[in-house]
Write a structure and sequence with these properties.
This protein is an alpha+beta fold. Helix content is about 15%, strand content about 25%.
Length: about 120
């Protein structure tokens, strides 16, 4: 598995499908797609006394966050991330911005039977 942050879910309009694909190909194009930004792959084993996996955003050689468009059907399940912070939570973090404001996260494997 690999963690991704979903930015948007969308469908291609029929007129665009007709321009991009043959009639035979159109039936194989997924109806629902998602633009996602990737996190680094999991380490071989969890780290630290808490036993949680640590992840961070994945960037390409040009410094852009790795991203792609994937079929929604490729999603396995949602996960719970804890932001990694020091002795205090930064006051500018909000529930709507913490995924963009934080560099590293812990994957909560205790709340998800698939991550154990």
């Amino acid at each position: 598995y690999r963690v991704a942050q979903v930015q948007v879910i969308f469908s291609l309009p029929s007129w665009l499908l007709e321009q991009l694909f043959t009639i035979d190909q159109q039936s194989h194009v997924p109806q629902h797609l998602a633009y996602v930004e990737w996190f680094m792959q999991f380490a071989q084993s969890p780290k630290g006394p808490h036993g949680l996996y640590k992840i961070r955003s994945s960037f390409n050689s040009k410094g852009y966050q790795d991203s792609t468009i994937v079929p929604v059907m490729a999603f396995r399940h949602s996960i719970h991330l804890y932001p990694k912070f020091g002795s205090a939570v930064l006051p500018e973090w909000t529930s709507s911005s913490v995924l963009d404001d934080t560099k590293q996260f812990y994957v909560n494997s205790f709340s998800d039977c698939c991550c154990k």
